[in-house]
C-alpha cells in the first residue's frame, strides 16, 4: 500500500517503531525492568505463563473499564453520581500497579521495535495515571469540575496509550501465550479428544 494512503495513526506508529532515538532511553530502562519484572519466577508469573495467556490485557480492561465508567457518570450521571465516579477512578488507580508490572514483564521479552513503542505506551499511560490521580485528589477536595476536566485529559491520554498497546498486542503479537496457540494450528487439540 502506498505510504500516502496509510491512515495517519498507522504512519505515526510505523515511524515510532523505527525511532532509533528511543534506543537510548530503552537501553537505560531495560536492565532495571528485566531485573524487577522480567526474570525468573516473577517474570513468568507476571507474563501469565502459568495461565497460558498474557495477564496484561485483562488488567488493562479493568483500568480502562473503570475509568471509562467514571467518564460516563461524569458526562451523564449528574451530581448524584459524583461519589461513584470518584470511587471508579480510585479503583482504576489501584489496578495500575499490577497492570504496569505485567506490561513491563511482557516488554522485557520483546525486540527493539516493540520496545520503542512499548516505552512510549508506558510513558503515555504514566501521564494518564497522573491525570487520574490529580482528578481523584481534586474531587476529594471538593473541586468536582476540575476533577472532571482532569479525568477527560486522562481519558484522552489513555486512549493514545490503549492504541499503542493494541498495536503491540494485535498487530505485533507480542503478548505471551502458550506455544500451542502459535503457528496456525488451532485445531490440533481437537483431534486428541
Question: Summary?
Answer:
With 193 residues, the protein is mostly helical. It contains 7 helices and no strands. 32% of the residues are buried.
Structure commentary:
The protein has 193 residues and is mainly alpha-helical. It has one domain (23-178). Helix content is 72%, strand content 0%. It contains 7 helices and no strands. It has helices spanning 8-17, 23-38, 40-47, 56-76, 82-107, 112-140, 144-171. Helix 2 (23-38) packs across helix 5 (82-107), helix 5 (82-107) packs antiparallel against helix 6 and helix 6 (112-140) runs antiparallel to helix 7 (144-171). The longest helix is centred in the middle third of the chain and has 29 residues, at 112-140. The protein is globular, with a radius of gyration of 19 Å. Residues 185-193 have low confidence and may be disordered.
Amino acid at each position: 500500500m502506498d505510504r500516502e494512503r496509510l491512515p495517519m495513526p498507522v504512519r505515526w506508529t510505523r515511524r515510532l517503531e523505527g525511532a532509533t532515538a528511543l534506543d537510548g532511553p530503552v537501553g537505560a530502562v531495560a536492565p532495571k525492568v528485566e531485573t524487577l519484572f522480567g526474570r525468573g519466577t516473577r517474570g513468568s508469573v507476571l507474563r501469565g505463563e502459568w495461565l497460558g495467556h498474557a495477564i496484561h490485557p485483562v488488567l488493562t480492561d479493568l483500568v480502562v473499564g473503570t475509568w471509562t465508567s467514571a467518564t460516563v457518570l461524569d458526562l451523564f450521571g449528574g451530581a448524584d453520581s459524583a461519589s461513584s465516579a470518584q470511587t471508579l477512578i480510585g479503583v482504576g488507580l489501584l489496578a495500575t500497579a499490577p497492570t504496569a508490572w505485567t506490561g513491563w514483564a511482557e516488554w522485557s521479552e520483546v525486540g527493539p521495535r516493540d520496545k520503542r513503542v512499548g516505552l512510549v505506551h508506558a510513558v503515555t499511560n504514566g501521564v494518564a495515571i497522573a491525570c487520574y490521580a490529580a482528578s481523584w485528589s481534586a474531587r476529594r477536595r471538593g473541586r468536582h469540575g476540575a476533577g472532571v476536566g482532569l479525568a477527560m485529559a486522562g481519558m484522552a491520554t489513555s486512549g493514545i496509550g490503549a492504541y499503542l498497546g493494541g498495536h503491540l498486542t494485535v498487530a505485533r503479537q507480542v503478548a505471551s501465550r502458550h506455544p500451542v496457540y502459535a503457528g496456525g494450528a488451532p485445531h490440533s487439540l481437537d483431534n486428541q479428544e
